[in-house]
Amino acid sequence: MKKFHPIAAAALLALLAPPTAFPQTANQADLDRDGIPNISDLDVDNDGILNGADRNIDGGTARSGPLRGRVIGDNLPNDSSQELDMDADGLADIAIAETDIDGDGLADDSPAETDIDGDGRLDGERLETDIDGDGLPDNTAAETDIDGDALADNAANETDIDGDGLADDARGEVDIDGDASANGLDTDVDGDGLANNADPDMLGTNAINDIFAGADSAYAPDATAAATIAFVGGEIRRLLQIPASDTGLRVRAGASQSGNRIGGVWRYLSADNMQVYANWSYPANNPSALNIFAVFEYTGPYSGNMADYTNPANYSLSRESKAYAQFPGGGITFVSWVPSQPAGFFYTAPNQQATGFAPPFQPLAAALSSLPNFTADQQYLSFSGNLGTVPGLPSLQPLVNLQRTVMQVSRAWYGRQEALQIR
């Protein structure tokens, strides 16, 4: 008869007994004691669920390692307001140095990081209302740092509010606050709990969705470039027929100038928040040759040598210059101008995948059809035409009116579509 080994019996009883909690201490660098520090451990609690998909990264039952079978860490889900360091790496989730909140090896601002807090809900999903998992809904005034990168959403240097790797002013950023509502349809574009029309960050020269927001390092302090700004601003007002009483124009000069050109950016914001912006540039020895719709094109050799592509001498002003017109929250229209032709525009409506609704192709086509040389392509949802019939620079008003029309048609359409869905 086989003898019953007392050590084996003790081991069996230990496995059958309720799991013993193994709490984490403040300075514990290796929660599961597997020899991998928490800060680089892709499964901090060794529960078999990688941090990026674990609803409680630093608390669970270890499935392997020296603490196998034991409950370790805490019982706080990642999105709990009491969970201050969800990956137990010793860096508070709101710390500036914490660039990977869920400890999955993907930086929070990387385009590849689609679930910053590792709660199993993609950051862009409608059901993901707390991107950084701090317990504060993204669309409340109390949530001042949506992506948890320790930069306040309205800070001058916060250029990516939802931490998706796309700058808030990038042309491809269609949802600034990551709430799954496209900017053009979002009544609170920056997700701070304040409606756009009552939000100081969305009005005037502090608008979050303009090319000046968070870009101070790229431009010279206004006081040090006052003479240049005054000259360029005066010329823009004259060329685009902006009265001196209109405070919607702002000009900035580049912080560093290279080659033999002086340049910067200008932006016009109408009283109802329609925006037109472009680069400006002129030869350093000839300010009268100011180009206010400046676009540069590469004219150097395609050698594969990075020095060639960063050499200002290999770039020249394109004969066709461009401005960009934009209504609040999105909807960029490209406006091109060639000296011998009238200004023309190109606009692409958001597709159904971006908004959840069929695009307003017919309403936009009807609203824009009176413009000269108008064409519409239903396959690509694109619209193009001229803003006038006379060659030369137009005044600013046709660009602003174009954007206002696009905005009014789009909002009326999507509002109706949403109402039909609710029914």
Describe the structure in your own words.
The protein has three domains: 23-206, no CATH class; 219-318; 324-423, no CATH class. 16% of the residues lie in helices and 16% in strands. It contains six helices and 14 strands. The strands form three sheets. Strands 4, 5, 6, 7, 10, 11, 12, 13 and 14 form a nine-stranded antiparallel beta sheet that branches. A three-stranded mixed beta sheet has the order 1-3-2, with no helix packed on it. A hairpin with a 5-residue loop joins β5 (261-269) and β6.
Describe the structure concisely for a colleague.
This protein has 423 residues and is an alpha+beta fold.
Q: Could you give the distance between the termini?
A: 76 Å
How large a portion of the residues is in β-strands, by DSSP E? Answer: 15-25%
- Sheet of most strands: 9 strands, antiparallel
Helices and strands, in N-to-C order?
HEEEHEEEEEHEEEEHHEEH
- The total of helices stands at 6
* General form: globular
**Residue windows where pLDDT falls under 50 for at least 5 positions:** 1-27, 203-215
- Mean of residue pLDDT values: 78
Helix/strand-derived category reads alpha+beta
Counted up, domains total 3
Which range best describes the helical content: under 10%, 10-25%, 25-40%, 40-55%, 55-70% or over 70%? 10-25%
Gyration radius, in Å: 28 Å
By DSSP, the count of extended strands is: 14
